[in-house]
Protein 1
Amino acid sequence: MASKVLIVYAHQSAGSFSAAAKDAAVEVLKSQGCSVEVSDLYAMKFKATATAEDITGEVKNAEHFCYAEETKVAWEEGRLCADITEEQRKVKEADLIVFQFPMYWFSVPAILKGWFDRVLTQGFAYTQEKRYSQGIFEKKKAMLSFTTGSMETEFSPNGINGDMNVTLWPLQNGILHYCGFQVLAPQIFWAPALAPPKCRTYMLEGWRTRLQDVLKEKPLSFTPMCCFDSEKGFQLKPEAIEKYANKEFGLTVGIHIGRPLPPNSQMKAGV
Amino acid sequence: MASKVLIVYAHQSAGSFSAAAKDAAVEVLKSQGCSVEVSDLYAMKFKATATAEDITGEVKNAEHFCYAEETKVAWEEGRLCADITEEQRKVKEADLIVFQFPMYWFSVPAILKGWFDRVLTQGFAYTQEKRYSQGIFEKKKAMLSFTTGSMETEFSPNGINGDMNVTLWPLQNGILHYCGFQVLAPQIFWAPALAPPKCRTYMLEGWRTRLQDVLKEKPLSFTPMCCFDSEKGFQLKPEAIEKYANKEFGLTVGIHIGRPLPPNSQMKAGV
């Protein structure tokens, strides 16, 4: 069966490099036989802010409104608002989701953060039991594809912005892998605004080439859920720590157990 | 002269723990003689999304709209929209900014990300030359104060969510320190929703106690700008690397030069 791809796209301008990257993805993936859907967040005027209006009908506890709890119940009862429900339909059908955006302040633009906050509701995208390697979307793949304002050197482990792997951890582990997604290596377009046109063309060509086999790529490595002890605050089990006792590096960027970070573990598969 | 404090507050409900933390801050800081201003983002229906509407009058390049470039020019020409200008006035006057929010997806809620994206415009908050330890707000302090959904153990260096210091890096280094702010240790309220009422009271008491001397606190340590070579892509100068050659840890979470991360460097001052 043909694969379905959802591109969640967050740039204001059809003339941007991000738009060109999105258009290239649509074209190449369609030519590979995929069906491709695009959520163009700015064009949709996607609501970024998590409010009680996201729930149809009464909220359970207006005085002590808790968004995560309220949307969990609303999802169970089919009372989430239409724009969230529609995005959830797209997520449910997708085999791969590509997030295409310009990096704003070491993260995604607010409109895309709003998509994460509002669409990935409890119950639909995760539960306390179903998360990480046992997550709800474990059969799906996801990938960040983004432009930076800074040069690659500035995001190296001795660059002024610090190691890009660190900056990627909250997004790739904390959002994508948390929901179970197999996280494909990010596609990083380093400072296209500073690059000459020829270089931008070259970057887009590399992207088009990658996309031809993107669905066969191996995902990044994360530590499986079974290594953590749910009885002890989800910390690594002693046997898991022991297994890594002679390793040079920590397990991942975040779960580093006081060791050096495994180089490029949030940037390349198989490291 | 009395200190001015701005609290940027991002919770939907006046009955929340976040609201109680914000109210405690207002009360204690006022009793210390500070003047306190609150930006209650949900109550203000603060616009989260960065769009061309943030600029009054013509944009420079509608076809290739670039938010950072357009808002830089608009700021220089006094053509940013009223809500951004008003938040910039508050920032300009503040000696300390406290960001009070519930952590959503390992980061700030979209409405607060929108505040960062829209208020901290180029020229006003940073330039290519004036950033980090030479940043525009070097005389100001800033602090994250937030609740988590997960327990503290889950955010330890061998916990399933990974080291909280890693998750804080993009926010504290990438946004606050980038603009020059002296970053005070974060105030983390671990999973108040899971805690009994007595424990929540205890957490708030600790916060009130801290606030009494908060303006005298030493900030977190970051690597000064002078250690980086602007001619070589802002990487650490050889003499800076050499200076740290015998140290056990990297300089910071992000600038770790392949060493173990300095423990708690994003959580405590003086480490």
Protein 2
Amino acid sequence: MTRSNWSVPETEVLQRVHERLDDDSADVLATIVDVEGNAYRRPGAKMLLDEAGDGVGSITAGCLEDDLLAAAESVREDGRPELITYDLMDDEDDVWGLGVGCNGIIDVLLEPLTETYRPAVEAFADSRNVAVLTVLEGGDGPLTRGDRAYYHPAGEGLTTPEGTPADEWPAALADPAAVLAERGRTDTIEVDDLEVFIDGLAAPTELVVFGSGHDVGPVTELAAKNDFHVTVVGFRGSVDLEDRFPDADETVTTSPSAVADELDLEERTHAVVMTHNFIDDRLTVEQLLDSSVAYIGLMGPHDRFEKMLAEFDDEGRTFDEDALSSLYTPIGLDLGGGSPYQIAHSIVAEVLAVSNDRTPRHLRTREGHIHDRVTVDSPPQ
Amino acid sequence: MTRSNWSVPETEVLQRVHERLDDDSADVLATIVDVEGNAYRRPGAKMLLDEAGDGVGSITAGCLEDDLLAAAESVREDGRPELITYDLMDDEDDVWGLGVGCNGIIDVLLEPLTETYRPAVEAFADSRNVAVLTVLEGGDGPLTRGDRAYYHPAGEGLTTPEGTPADEWPAALADPAAVLAERGRTDTIEVDDLEVFIDGLAAPTELVVFGSGHDVGPVTELAAKNDFHVTVVGFRGSVDLEDRFPDADETVTTSPSAVADELDLEERTHAVVMTHNFIDDRLTVEQLLDSSVAYIGLMGPHDRFEKMLAEFDDEGRTFDEDALSSLYTPIGLDLGGGSPYQIAHSIVAEVLAVSNDRTPRHLRTREGHIHDRVTVDSPPQ
């Protein structure tokens, strides 16, 4: 199979699912729905398996995939979703343990890719948060494995795809779904004997890069590989931004004073300011400090920002502590690199840490799990 | 000009210089020889400019390059090296200051690319440290701007390219050259009225990745972009490693017990262990702990390493504190990402920080200069 497709940005996996739905393919979607102990990937990790045996995305570092292909084949044939458990608890177990090298039990849901998944990929394509609810065990109720419902933050309660069971979904699932959609996390909720996997698909984190110098290229490239939705903003005569920064999802050419009007500067927006033009940087930073963006990274030495603050002060412009605390200059983590790619690597690493609310440090010094575990309260039984 | 060539890994710039020397080209080499204040790049940053006006590498984030092309043209015509100073101290200066956005004075040496530079690129190609000594000001002595000498750690004292002044080089330059070659840093040394730029070209940092799972791909790709010399080591039936990991400089297929024999595990070697096979990982880690490698990153949860230590203990194997302190598990910086590329980004970020002797943290919390400044004692006058 095409191993090169296994390690792709997560955004590409969902884009591929979207394409294959449009192709009316007979693909099988594999999703990790539970991990006990440790594993390479966390619940929600997806892999799309096609009839040719090619896979896009990965749910382990490799050793389960071949077995998954066989399992996918049977799911494709009898057309019914399957829940498979891989017990990797025993590292000496040479069937699985050696290959994965972690102590974990992994539950994987395999299902034929159908139209019932379209609302998920369409929300993702529109950068809307969404929670995908999938029945793992129906128990004695009318719902059966693979039945699906959605929670859209903009809507009210749960919605179900056309032609699928609607009334039977417990309304109590909406609250946990709302939390998971917002945070892009997953959990499995039980209501009586109904067991539902809730897959929160948060819209990709927004990264807006202000600047059009060649040093913007590596930042855009590395950010896209890390699943950011990247917008490159050029000023004045910036031309060919799409051609020069092919990894950008969007490009905008505007004037430094129109930044706040032209762009959606939201709480989930992360901004990197690297125009290398003091006045353009100052105009941009001023509007960013007035906005609610989560992160403002400013390239250049700290005394350059001090000069900016002095000029703001002369003009009577003041900013609250929260805004100023969101500004990082010099930009990036202290990794010691000096080449364009090393600088970009340290910038993207900083944005990753901030967007994930992490304190950058060696993982060996961190207590607890590497991956966040979000657990929402189960609704009253 | 081809802006896409500006942001390339530094290793590619020197590889390109090597190729162009072989092509007997009429290119011009630009090197930052001094930075006062702050700038995007540090001394030693290089850019190769060809007759067509294409540049490879970058010495600023963009705005100086066009002027450099003009300057390069005149250097190409009269065939003599030139030293150009760009004063960016005044950020309001709309000729340069606005474009670079840093308070700095940058000295750039422009010289026709000649055979006198070949020893530098050949040492780099062979992964040998070397210091390139270039005369900036000859003063009243016989040496003139652009005259060149080399310090090879393996050799004795300074050597000079054939057909260039040899006896006139002050022997006192050998000591600072030795330090700079080792550390890959630069400095300008004055002996009486002779001014010499010493460019230490340390061999690329060695990164050895143990494993052949698809998750090795993103690690190899991102490490290569960050100028590591990457070797992928596969065990047993690993096939097609070159095809599967095209960004690797070398690939080796061996047995887990032969790691120490097959590979040069030196002090500048950084190792990433991600075979996802407990026994293979243990055998590899044991040999790495017995070696003098600078860094051992082990993928997997910490309790997995605890189990390894317990087994070493059962076998009566012990390791000293230094060795154990070089082992990082879970591997990577705490950036919070969970996709294959995010995991790889955090691994490469950790190796960068360790290889540059940095404590990973936000640069805004760091005191002093972003770039290391190495100053070696000037020889007695």
